[in-house]
Design goal:
It is a single chain. Helices cover 79% and strands 0% of the residues. The protein is built from 16 helices and no strands. The longest helix is centred in the middle third of the chain and has 31 residues, at 132-162. The protein starts with 6 loop residues before the first helix and ends with a helix.
C-alpha cells in the first residue's frame, strides 16, 4: 500500500528539484560526446571509446534490480540525496585525474548513481499521479530538463574547448558539483511521502507477476528508442567533425541544437498531450522521424554527401524523437500498481542502458571503419524496427487497457 500525498500542491513543490536532478544526470551522462571528441584527438581509438559507454551502461543495468531493495530500505529521498552526493564528489575529482582508466571508473560510478536516481524520480512521480495524461504531462516536463542538460553540456564545453583555456575543459565538471549541492539542499527541505515498506517483498516473485508478452514488447520499444537517441547524443558531434569537416567547437554547437529542439519537443508535448490519444501522438512523431531521415538520406545520396544542410536537418529530428520515451513510459507506468513502480522503473532503466550500450558499440564500429556515409541509413533502419514494434504494442495495449 502507498500513502498518497496531496497531489497537486506536493508536486508543485518537488518539481524544481526533480528537474534539477534530471538536468544533473543528463550533464554527466551526455558528456560522453565531448569525451569521445576530446580523447579521440588524444589518439585513443574509437573502438576503445565505444566500449567506454559500456562502463556507464552495464552498471546501470546490473545495479537497477538491486537498487529497488536499497531504495525500499532507505527511502526515495535519502537514496536520491546519496546518489547526487556521489555525483557531485566524482565531478569534483575528475578534472584532477589524467589517466584513461579513471574515465571507465567514473562512468561506472555515474551509471550506478543514475540507476538509483531515475528509479527514485519515477517512483516519486508515480506515487503522486494516477491519471495517464497528467502523468504523461509531468514526465515530459521533467524529462525536458534532461534535454537542457545536453544543450548546456555542448554549449558550455564547446566554449571551453574553443577558448584559450581549452586545456582546462575538464574543469567544466565543477559546475555539476555546484548544481548537485543546490539540489541536495532543496531536497533536504522537502517532506516526501514514501511507500509503506513491505517486509514480504520478493523481487523474483514480483518480476514473475509483472512479466507478460505486452511488457516484453514494451521493453523492446524502450531499448530501441534509447538505441536511436544514443546514436545522436554521443556520436553526432563526431559525425559533424569527421564527415562534414567542421571544427570541434562548431560540431558541439550544432549538436547542441538537437538537444534544444528535443527540449522544445518535450515542452510542447507536456502542454498539448492531454488533447490527443497517446498512441496516435506517438505514431505521428515516429512518422515524422522517418520522413526527416528519408530527406537526409536523399540529400546525401542524390545531392552532396557532405552537404552542410545536414547540420540543420539532424537537430529537427529532436522535435519528434524526444516525446517518444516519456509518452510510451507514461502510458505503461500509469497502469502499474504503485507498489511495483520502483521495480517497473528498474526494468525501464535496465533496457534503456542496454539500448545505449549496444548502440554505442555498433556506432564505434561504423566510425572505426569510416562508414560515415551510412550513418543516417543505420539510424533509419533502427527507427523502422522501432515503428514496427510500436504498432504491435499499441494494437495489444489498447485492447488490454480497454478491458
Amino acid at each position: 500500500m502507498i500513502r498518497v500525498p496531496e497531489m497537486t500542491t506536493k508536486l508543485s513543490k518537488i518539481s524544481l528539484p526533480l528537474k534539477l536532478t534530471f538536468l544533473i544526470f543528463s550533464m554527466v551522462l551526455n558528456c560522453m560526446g565531448i569525451v569521445i571528441l576530446q580523447l579521440s584527438e588524444a589518439k585513443i581509438t574509437y573502438e576503445k571509446l565505444g566500449f567506454l559507454e559500456s562502463f556507464k551502461d552495464i552498471p546501470i543495468a546490473f545495479i537497477s534490480l538491486f537498487a529497488v531493495n536499497f531504495i525500499s530500505r532507505f527511502g526515495t529521498k535519502k537514496s536520491l540525496i546519496l546518489a547526487l552526493t556521489i555525483v557531485g564528489i566524482c565531478s569534483l575529482i575528475l578534472p584532477f585525474v589524467k589517466v584513461f582508466w579513471f574515465y571507465k571508473l567514473w562512468f561506472a560510478i555515474i551509471g550506478t548513481c543514475f540507476a538509483i536516481g531515475k528509479i527514485c524520480v519515477f517512483g516519486i512521480i508515480r506515487n503522486n499521479i494516477s491519471d495517464e495524461k497528467a502523468l504523461a504531462k509531468t514526465m515530459n516536463s521533467v524529462e525536458a530538463s534532461f534535454m537542457i542538460g545536453i544543450f548546456v553540456v555542448n554549449i558550455g564545453f564547446g566554449w571551453l574547448i574553443s577558448s584559450q583555456f581549452s586545456e582546462f575543459w575538464k574543469f567544466g565538471f565543477l559546475s555539476i558539483t555546484v548544481l548537485s549541492a543546490i539540489t541536495i539542499f532543496l531536497f533536504s527541505k522537502l517532506v516526501i511521502s514514501e511507500p509503506v515498506k513491505n517486509n514480504d517483498e520478493n523481487i523474483l516473485k514480483d518480476l514473475s507477476i509483472l512479466f507478460n508478452p505486452l511488457l516484453i514488447i514494451f521493453l523492446a520499444i524502450i531499448f530501441s528508442i534509447v538505441f536511436v537517441e544514443q546514436s545522436f547524443n554521443s556520436w553526432l558531434p563526431s559525425f559533424y567533425k569527421n564527415h562534414l569537416k567542421v571544427n570541434s567547437f562548431f560540431a558541439l554547437q550544432a549538436s547542441s541544437f538537437l538537444a534544444l529542439f528535443s527540449y522544445v519537443g518535450r515542452t510542447i508535448t507536456a502542454n498539448v498531450i492531454h488533447r490527443f490519444s497517446l498512441s496516435k501522438y506517438y505514431i505521428f512523431c515516429l512518422s515524422l522521424i522517418v520522413l526527416a531521415l528519408a530527406i537526409i538520406i536523399g540529400i546525401q545520396f542524390f545531392d552532396t554527401d557532405d552537404s552542410k544542410s545536414l547540420l540543420f536537418l539532424f537537430p529537427v529530428i529532436g522535435l519528434f524523437l524526444s516525446p517518444l520515451y516519456p509518452v510510451i513510459n507514461s502510458k505503461m507506468i500509469a497502469k502499474i500498481d504503485k507498489a511495483k513502480a520502483n521495480l517497473f522503473t528498474s526494468l525501464i532503466v535496465i533496457f534503456s542502458s542496454l539500448g545505449s550500450s549496444v548502440s554505442s558499440i555498433l556506432m564505434a564500429i561504423i566510425f572505426g571503419k569510416q562508414l560515415l556515409s551510412f550513418y543516417p541509413v543505420y539510424i533509419l533502419c533502427a527507427v523502422i524496427v522501432m515503428f514496427t514494434i510500436s504498432l504491435i504494442y499499441f494494437k495489444f495495449a489498447d485492447k488490454k487497457f480497454r478491458k
